[in-house]
Amino acid sequence: MKKAQLMILVLVAFILVSQVASAEECGITNLAACIPEKIFEFFLSVLNAPLQPLLNWIHSLMTEPVNTSLFASIWSIIVYILSLFYGLFLLFIGFKFLLAGYSPEQRENAKRSLANIIIMMVLVQASYVLYSIALQLSGGLTSAVFNIIDPHFFILTIDNLPNIALQFILTLPYVVQLLITLILLALRYVIVLSGVVLFPIGIFCYFIEPLQSYGKLILNAIFVVMIIPFFYAIIFLASSMLLQIPLFQNMKIVVMIGAFTLVNIGTLLLVVFVIIKAALKIATPIMKVASIVEKVV
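Now predict its structure.
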């Protein structure tokens, strides 16, 4: 019992000493109201200490562009392999012009194919620069929205007694949501990093008619994963603005957990959607081939 009392006295003394510089706020006249407030601030600072690194990592993964230079050498190899097909495509289009004869429709079709191949060659060769620019734009948009958000929205604060009580109770669920968001953003970082290699492949497939659906799938998946932090920032901004409504002012921690939960569930649903769509794209031609074989047999 004496040890517990001694620890409480030491804690109170520590808080009072640490607040000597702010004597205007905490003095003899308001000591009874000041001590509980400083105790709450001390405990919240202890709880915020492990949260801050997680929030810093989340902020970095959301706003800072991915370092594509790590995969630059692999990109150059992929582009070199794809460039081996340019000559075959041009030769094929040349044959189409020869076989078109005086048919305006076939010649127009050959001209369109030539234009598509030229555009494809230019975009594939410039895919690294285009991908880097897209990442810069995505990061810039996300940073612009993120800078509007109140920086105190993500940390535990002393606003009112109901909110303080909820923060002490719900800190662990909040940490769990932060960890899930951090894991998802780390996976997104890896996917976007590998996207610099998939991007030229997607462009290449998009301009080849039999492979166009696969090209669309690759490009759509890359751009969705690339831009997703921007929608995260929109959700966080909308959630922070909810705190201006009196109904939500007494449950800030609930709004914070809800924002991160919405982000995490939305991401998981998006991943499931992309996986199902990719499976359908792959399964459709296989089913067509199987039906043809079945009819022949």
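The longest helix spans residues 161-206.
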